[in-house]
Design goal:
Layout lengths: L1 H17 L9 E2 L14 E3 L6 E6 L2 E6 L5 E3 L4 E3 L1 H4 L19 E2 L14 E3 L6 E6 L2 E6 L5 E3 L4 E3 L1 H4 L1 H13 L2 H13 L16 E2 L14 E3 L6 E6 L2 E6 L5 E3 L4 E3 L1 H4 L1 H12 L25 H7 L2 E2 L14 E3 L6 E6 L2 E6 L5 E3 L4 E3 L1 H4 L6
Antiparallel strand pairs: 1-4, 2-3, 3-4, 5-6, 7-10, 8-9, 9-10, 11-12, 13-16, 14-15, 15-16, 17-18, 19-22, 20-21, 21-22, 23-24
Helix pairs in contact: 4-5
Length: 380
């Protein structure tokens, strides 16, 4: 209790110094707000009369926050977004999007008139690997991938060029059309060195699931149940209707039970967990030291990797990172020049992570958030 009070006092003092406009007394007591907050899953409440605002719960109180200009709060998606995606139906709200316009969409027969917001349809760009189209209301809207990434049609997402393979495919096609044998041999060698991205299965077969007592009969779509694979770290099981379905992690990633998602092996720690279980079974087994390297696939000194990608994969030695990590309380470090990035410590090294598009790293809240909330003070 004393530690919790000290933390709360530190938050209040920090808030009063860094943000003069924040006052704890400005929060309104609301029975929908829990007395004990989960910082990894904060609770948001819609405004009763203004789509451009919402309430954020903290310590049993609701604090009023404005959405970014041109955006509205969506109760189902629990965030601010363009009005067409937020779908706020408050009568008094008049959506005036600053950037998104329905008229800017291009009619495309491949885009359905009604789409599932949880599983949107995407289309590749005909001329640029750094762009793609997102379907909405029978139209395709042009979007850009994050800097340094390309659109991967087979994976249905943006990813690094070595995994997306968009530029490689276009270059190979150009070489085939122009009949340049030397360029074909160079690209063939490049393809043999890159990670092989397998296409995602488009067809869902209900009978492919295996009944599992750990899977509930009634699923919560916002909190799905995931289970580790019995022997393959690159796979996991997703529960649906009392059955477990085997899914593949993205190439080069493992499933982590603690983080409940696929991530780079050094963060997922799947092999470490399996090795600990084997060690308990066999007392004679030697101590296991986890070692994963991308050298067997693409050397880090290859020109295909950028400096930032090397920091993401190999990390940077930093004396501020502890040798023994606490997975429940990871250590994060700010980026010296970019508010949209931060470092995560693991085994004495700092690994670069990029915040979602349009968000900044917040030292105060120890997470990425909208710039108005994060209030990053880095000056280049």
């Amino acid at each position: 209790m004393m530690v919790l009070s000290a933390i709360l006092l530190l938050i209040l003092l920090t808030g009063s110094l860094a943000s003069p406009t924040f006052q704890f007394t400005e929060g309104v007591l609301d029975s929908r707000c829990p007395l004990e907050d989960n910082p990894m899953n904060p609770k948001h409440l819609p405004h009763p009369s203004d789509c451009g605002k919402f309430f954020k719960c903290f310590n049993g109180r609701a604090f009023l926050i404005n959405c970014p200009a041109g955006q509205e709060f969506g109760a189902q998606i629990q965030r601010c977004d363009y009005p067409a995606f937020a779908r706020c139906r408050t009568v008094l709200a008049e959506p005036e999007p600053a950037e998104f316009k329905f008229e800017d969409g291009i009619d495309d027969v491949r885009c359905a008139l009604t789409s599932d917001p949880m599983m949107p349809d995407h289309l590749p760009h005909p001329s640029s690997c750094q762009k793609f189209y997102k379907c909405f209301g029978g139209k395709g809207f042009e979007l850009s991938c994050p800097p340094g990434q390309e659109w991967a049609t087979a994976l249905n997402r943006c990813d690094f060029p070595s995994i997306a393979r968009c530029s490689i495919s276009k270059t190979y096609q150009a070489a085939k059309d122009s009949n340049k044998e030397e360029l074909k041999e160079e690209i063939t060698q490049l393809q043999s060195d890159t990670v092989q991205a397998l296409p995602m299965k488009a067809e869902f077969i209900y009978s492919a699931g295996v009944p599992d007592t750990r899977c509930p009969r009634y699923d919560d779509p916002f909190r799905p149940i995931h289970l580790p694979h019995a022997y393959d770290c690159a796979k996991f099981q997703k529960c649906f209707d009392g059955r477990a379905y085997v899914l593949d992690c993205p190439p080069g990633q493992h499933f982590g039970v603690r983080i409940n998602r696929c991530d780079f092996p050094q963060f997922a720690q799947c092999l470490q967990s399996k090795q600990k279980r084997l060690t308990k079974r066999d007392a004679r087994a030697a101590d296991y030291e986890y070692d994963y390297s991308y050298e067997d696939e693409i050397p880090l000194d290859s020109s295909e990797w950028t400096d930032e990608q090397r920091e993401m994969i190999a990390g940077v030695s930093d004396i501020r990172c502890p040798r023994n990590d606490d997975p429940d309380f990871p250590v994060h470090l700010t980026h010296p020049k970019d508010c949209g990035k931060f470092y995560k410590c693991y085994d004495g090294r700092a690994y670069l992570i990029v915040c979602p598009t349009g968000q900044h790293w917040s030292v105060r809240f120890d997470r990425c958030d909208y710039p108005k909330v994060a209030k990053c003070t880095i000056r280049p």
